[in-house]
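Quick sanity check, Small ribosomal subunit protein uS3c:
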Amino acid sequence: MGQKINPLGFRLGTTQSHHSFWFAQPKNFSAGLEEDKKIRDCIKNYVQKNMRISSDSEGIGIARIEIQKRLDLIQVIIHMGFPNLLMEGQTRGIEELQMDVQKKLNSVNHKLNIAITRVEKPYAQPTILAEYLAFQLKNRIAFRKAMKKAIELTEETDTIKGIQVQIAGRIEGKEKARVEWVRDGRVPLQTIRAKIDYCSYKVQTIHGVLGIKIWIFVDEE
C-alpha cells in the first residue's frame, strides 16, 4: 500500500497539532490562509538575507513557525535551531523583522508580535536536517555519504527511535530519475499513535531539482 497522505495531516488531533491557531468565517478563510503564507514567506526571506552562514551548513534553520491570531493581535512564534546566527542583535533583529512583516500585511487593525524560541536539538527537526542534506547535495557530495551523515547527526539525540531519508530525481546527473532511500530504526508510517515528524524539501542542483523527504519517528503513545 502506497503512502499517499501527509504524515502530519494524518495524525492531526492525536500526536500532531496545527501550526496556525485562529478562527474565521468561511468567506474569510482563504484570506486568512494567504495571510499566514505571507507571514511565513516574509520571515524566511528576511532570515535568509540577514543570516551569517556557517562553513559546514547552509539554511535558515527554522524548524517551524506558529501563528496565533486574536481580535487585535497576531502572535508569531519562530522555533529556530540557530537563532544566534542572525547578523544583527536579537532584539534589533526582531524589531526590524516585525516592521518588515507589518509592511507586507498592510493591516492596521492587528498588532504584530514576533518571538524567537530556540530548539534544543536542531538536527532532531526534519526541516533543519533537510536543509543540511540539501547543502551537501549542492556541493556535489555523494548522496549516500550525505544521507549517512544526516542519519549520524540524529544518533546524538536519544529521543529519536527511527529515521527514514529519501532523495528523488536525477541523482548525480543520471539521465533517468530514480528514488533512493535509507532507513535507520523503526518508522511506523501506518500507526496513528506514532508521533512522526515529516518534511518535504526541494533543492536546486546543477543537474536539476531533487526532492528530499525525511520521516523522524519520535515516540509512540
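Posting the structure with no commentary besides this: The beta strands are 20-21, 62-69, 73-80, 111-118, 162-169, 178-185, 194-205, 208-220.
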